[in-house]
Predict the structure.
Amino acid sequence: MPLNPEIAEFLDLVDASPGDGQSMAFHRSTPAQARDAFEQASVRMRWEAPQVHSEDLHCQARDGATLTLRLYRPCAPAEQPLPVLLYLHGGGFVVGSIASHDGVCREFCARTPCAVLTVDYRRAPEQRFPVALDDCADALAWLAHNAREWGLDASRVAVGGDSVGATLASVLAIDAAHLGGAVQPRLQLLCYPVADASKSWESRTLFAEGYLLESATLEWFYDHYARQAEDRSNWRFSPLLATGLQGVAPAYIGLAGFDPLLDEGQAYARHLREQGVTVSSEVFEGLVHDFLRMRLVTAEIDTVYARLAQVLRDALN
């Protein structure tokens, strides 16, 4: 299937205005410059997301730092505790925030409906592997201990995210099964995850440039997150390398057809199945990386959200 024509037009505009894109020039920027560019682009891509209730909360990380959480709930009063999607934003461990992915969380909250909890985990290079993962695990622990107070049902939880947020979510699900965590997710909702940063993949060559996320930018992200080269082969960095996955929560993996991460996402789906995990996967053939934030670009994203919301409803309700 060819590239979605509206996305093709969008990419032409990005190419015409290099400073106006998201990640295409990040590998030639400082982290601070990349973050500023990403947030500015996020404002321009913001759509009229559904109205839901949101409030910022705080929890303590294991090292004593204070983390900001944002809790979204449907506007209508709930008659019983709400199921929860713990949603982790993408951005290569370096850029992205709860603000940049606000619309994504609102869509999931309104369409499911469920509560959505998101985490402003600390980013690289100031905080390298595995701090982002530890922050997300601490947020999940906060949910286990505070769900009742906030009208949430800790027995009906999904973990999800996009890009490296999906990576973090999948590692949380694996750890929950391995370590017997207080929250046992019912679903991994994974959109275009980083599954293996330890090797090269054909799609990273095929879609290296011109499709928003560039392969050189991926390397730039990984170099900022890793403490040392060996970290890339740690399964908590590259979950495709994880083994002993029996009992891990079922996974839904949604991939983009024109994405440097396509091949490893497909390989991860196969690997999870081979390890005994129930997996549903699909490729949105005409889309590119970061499609969840492209509601203004093409109406096709509305169909994608409808599909993902149905997956969430089936798992949580």
